[in-house]
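User: two proteins, same treatment. go.

Assistant:
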Amino acid sequence: MKSKFNDVISVLERIANGLGCEIKIIGSDTEKWQSATVQVIWSSRDKIDDAYYGFVINEDTLKFNQDGITWSLNAMAVHGNFSNRAKTELSKLSWVDKDKSNLETIDIMANNNKSLKASIVLERIFSRLPLAIQKLQSRHDNRPAFTVKDEYDIQDLLAAMLVIHFEDVRSEDYMPQQAGASSRIDFILKKEKVGIEVKYSKSNLTDKKLGEQLSIDIQRYQSHPDVKTLYFYIYDPDKVIKNRQALINDFSKKHNRLKVQVVIS
């Protein structure tokens, strides 16, 4: 099944390269290798919104489609091009039974995998958080701007967004004691088994120090019974982090029992 999974990813990557975009796997079944959600990222992010696609493999059948949410006519046209090419090329895979497969109607958000749904929503929130902060700088009737001075301000804004999308959001959930000291994780999405840690990059925070912090947190949260997926959201408005992609690649993977995703914006 893993080879079929890789076939699908290879097709999507080839189409993305041809259209001048890239794909990012944001949720996948790494046990059975039967399903995944991919994010399509365009270079002109200010003009074209990202889109999310999902696929499900079952022996000789394949289901694939966009999640159905776009934000502009321009985005709809561009993503329609990607979607149509993907469906055409995926149908050519040797193991795909075209009569049984459905490349049209799968709805990602109807998937019963709560962690997968959470990944889609969180990726959208994180990618647009800087824009939300920018909008709050200019408020009605000259009211004070929402100023982001540290990670606590980010946590406040993120908390307001999370409760819109998730029913049970726990803030600063205490971790079991380690070496005589307890620690707190910023947010727990209880039903989805997702933990979120927020960090604010500052001028004195080097890539090495940040990596060390992530390593410590990953080890610490291995024992948390309500966290199967751990998100690190790193707010980096001044581009302090020198090599963002290296940090993402190094830590966005499975660490023992814990699946980790790093998002920087």
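Protein 2:
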Amino acid sequence: MNAMRIKRLSALLVAGWSMLAASSAFAQQPNMYGQAMSRAPLTYNQGMVDDSYPYNTYSYAGGCDNCTSQGDNQMGCCDAATGCCDDGCQPCAPAWSIRAAAVFMKRQSPKSRAFITDFGNVVFNYNQFEFDYQPGADISLIRNLDCCNALEVRYFGLWDVDDSRRVGPITSGNSTLIISGDYDSQLHSGEINHRYICCDSCLTLLGGFRYLNLREQFHGNLLNPTTAVDINSRTSNDLYGFQLGLDAVVLEGPSRRFRVNALAKGGVYYARSENLVSAALFDPNNTAGGSLFGSNTNAANGVAFVGELGLLGSYQVTCNTSIQLGYQLLWLQDVAVASEQFIQGGPTTQVDNGGSVLYHGLNCGVVINF
């Protein structure tokens, strides 16, 4: 009898050991994405998982491996600790995201304002400047804290948006006159935002601090056979303030690889505006220099508004990479612009900070998640 019990007990121990070894071997095998499963795999709702959706492989720093309810686990990824479950629109995010894009934007022409008139007729108007699309950069680094919260650092820059115009020769009185002008505009922006991803929708709310620096320069030259007048107008604006915005998914393809996002931001800013306006008289036949007959440097404080809109389409190429293409617009109101600092007869005696600038153009780049 004892021999029979020992024999049965030995058989049970061998069977248990075999099951334990098989379970351990299964846990160490790679999953469908080539990753070793050192713990039990996620519980998937097999009826709703779309294996073609590459975000299924993502998990944020805290992990998306605490799901126990198949009913709440629609895309195979949720965090029971935070109650933040994926609804098929905003999956659990990777720990880091880098968005690097090249922008090709232009400045809207300055508003109509006469630079030179001849007996009441406008000879040169600032709105004759027509800017071409110029390159810039739009770079963001996003740290996802969990499924619903992220921190973003972003730089946006347009380095050299310029245009040149020439009028003449024209007859003015008893002489001929040639007028030429160059206009240059530069913008640099840095911002830090907190992004809150609404876990039950395709909407991300954001808010944070933003700094912008807008610099413009106008250089005009009036030339006749005996006299040349050189005019310079420079402005600089430093804007500091807070902004609010949203980033919403407005369209998504059947495979969920393609989506279109709409972006809107707006904020009120403290603005420090400065100008430097000068006019000098030269003898065109004398290269030694000329005489400065008017120069002013002024500064003023004010309140400015900055608004930004964008529509971006993205396509998921690999598990960690997507490409994007879109159009964006940036508007600054109540700032000092170069075209509004010089009046006929000489430089202004104060800063005119009631101007506006509108940039718009293409955005194309790549998003890398890791």
